[in-house]
Amino acid sequence: MHLGNALQRWLNSHGLLGIAIGVLCVATALSVLFVVGGYYLVTP
Fold first, then answer.
1. Could you tell me the pTM of the whole model?
2. Domain limits, the chain
3. How confident is the model at residue 16 (pLDDT cuts 50, 70, 90)?
4. What is the number of other CB atoms lying within 10 angstroms of the CB of residue 18?
């Protein structure tokens, strides 16, 4: 099974709402990661 085929099936089954939720989740996770990582970098 190729990743592209699995991704295509997931997009077809979930539609635009699933795409929007996925993008929001990834953006939120990256934001939290940067904030926590930056905090640990500047904290002695």
1. 0.58
2. 1-44
3. confident
4. 13
